[in-house]
Structure prediction request, 444 residues.
Amino acid sequence: IGPNWLHMNMPNNGGAEEINFDYQRVAAPPTDPTPPAPPAPPAPTPVRADTAVAAAAAIASGAKWIQTSGLDISSTFDAQGALIELLFGGPSWKAAVNLNGKGKLLNATVRTPLSTYNASGERTQFWKAIAVSSNADATISNVTIAADAGFCIHNFGKLNVENTWASTFSDYFYFGEEESYVSMKFSGYRGGSRSESGFRVAHGRYLVEDCIFDNSSGGKAAMRGDSPAWPDGSPGGVVRRTKLVGNVGLNPLTEDDGGQMMGIDRWRVVDKWIVQPGIDKAVAVAYAKSLKTLGKSRREVVIACADRFLSVDQLMAYANKAKLTASDIDLTLAHRKTECSRHSDALIEDSEIVGDYRICARMDLTVKRTPITGDQPISGNSQATYPWPVDRVLDADEVAPPPDVTFEDCPITARVAVGIDFTKWPTVKLTGSTTVKMNGAQSI
Prediction:
């Protein structure tokens, strides 16, 4: 055995055999001097390619670094481990990889320019790594989002994600739009200090299994968003065998405090006037035209411009600076009614939550066999009534009912406080072997 030798003595001892191992050290043979290290391989050379065909040809020829203004992929694209880098200067809606139809992105690393921020720390621009079109039945497999990307995955369609990872991004790892669906397995992220929710849906459905979502480095929620039930009544959002770290909120209004409602609360209609604080008209018009070029409807353009250019905080200071048409007001109120009427139906089982779980209105939720640990692990940050706008009378279906939430067989540990008063939240139920410990002592 290498420089050792093994002596085995096997006497006949009354029919019983015994084996004695006797190790003796012998001198190691002299060794040759350490050979010189081989020269480092040359650094990869970037190859410019703005079409999937050109990029595939470059990769087939050995390229390991593709620089692009955006690749449109509608079939299987195997990057063979190459880096796909989105060049600086294009519009933020244009992703490094745009998946259309049955597009598949395999075995790639995707990098975007850094997001930009102003002196106040507000984001001024970001870029997307991967976008999925509204008609797509797409796949992402064995993909790494390079550190410091802006927006990782923006899904408008049906998407299967496997073995896909990201870290220190500045916005979202995954954002599913209305009517989208994602199946995400063996994937995850670690968010950076600026990151928003790592996983967010806006009236979309999802299945998350065997993942790790870690937003403990200063970002917001590990997961949030609303997930309407399927037509058969089964939960629209399902999480299994997944670890969620950070502030966690599967919130039906897609925001962690239920306040913004995707920008619609930034519209304040006062006698047909609305605020546009300090926005350069040419910038706003150019943005609207870019959305129109993408095929967005007038309704989508109006909503997107409101979300980007209007601010609630400066309403009084800038009142009567921009006037809405009657049709714009109708669009605004109709969309806000949709937002206020959203309902989430989710199931979490056999998982782990490290952070504060935020219960919110319009939620049907069951959590099973999932330990929850946090300062205030069952938080009431999002109460059953929100600071609704007061510029009109709310319809009945806009008034949020109390949530219907069940924790079944869940050990809950509170380091500071539970976070809610169960007497005021009778629709939050603890069943089975669910226990609550607060400051180390059994309390419920």
